[in-house]
Amino acid sequence: QALFINCQEGSTDTITLKLIAGETTTYTKMKFSAALFASVVLGSGAADAFTAGVKRSAKVSSVSLRETISEELGTPCEDECALDSFPNLPPSVHPGVVSGQAMLDLLDHAKENGYAIPAVNCVSSSGINACLEAARKNDAPIIIQFSSGGSQFYGGKGLSNKNYAAAIAGAVSGAFHVRTMAEQYGIPVILHTDHCAKNLLPWVDGLLAASERYYAKHGEPLFSSHMIDLSEEPIEENIEICKDYLTRFSKIGMLLEMELGITGGEEDGVNNEDVALEDLYSKPEEIYQVYDALTPISDMFTVAAAFGNVHGVYSPGNVQLEPKILTRAQAYISEKLGDKAPADKKPVHFVFHGGSG
After folding, report:
1. pTM of the model
2. Residues with catalytic annotation?
3. Any residues with CB less than 8 A from the CB of 240 and at least 6 apart, and which?
4. Of 37, 63, 84, 304, which one has the greatest count of Cβ atoms within 10 A?
């Protein structure tokens, strides 16, 4: 499966990642701390799992018609950073923030080649730069994202967060930093936001409005994607609200990540340590219900399905991962689709949150 790893800058976790490709399984265990997460993950002995087929070459692709932010700001990129597309990735995937079809092409490439794209929650410009530097050293794409609390911190604790004003301003400021520096580092970046529960929807509404204004001027959204996490709500409500957002997202080439099932543990002030055990595991039927509801609107969505994964550090044996849930879901949905199923029988892009314990 194509998995996306999600962790908090400033935390310390241990991840055991199980990638499944047919009958082959690969385990990667890693411990990370603060902004060094990206360096540790991408620079580990398992770097090939993240960078398979993504090494740089000297070949320059065809000229792109898009105006880069470096051109707009008069801060030209040089040498490798000036490439119009990233070598050994789909031609649409370029250095800088990717969105729309380019982002889908990147996710498909990850799924087809069996590597994961790490996502790092950043709370400072130095943390963002550390992630970009680590990605560049490993010639790999990366996801940089902001949580609501991290966004507020990025804006400064001295600002009022009434109506999430500080969180909105902080995330927008961080987004422009990522857009400016990602091109300079010459790395493809998916610019994302993390868990957004129902009470935080006004935060994403503010960011979505900023992306719509940015799209009107630049032909692409400010952010690549947003996560709407309504996993604690009834599944029918979860899906209906996600349908509304995906309809709006799809008009500007933005991807929606939705969560199904609950990620255990605690992150950014959200504590799910005491949730019922069965809520930590998604059912294939539920994943199909999401797929069936969202696909008619757009294929630009990912599903954070739960398979026992949790945030935080736990003693061995206290966390029971069941990644076969994802494999069974792909098979179940492919069977439902019949002749319309993709050739690889993997219709869903999955997201993996938290450490494994």
Report:
1. 0.78
2. 194
3. none
4. 37
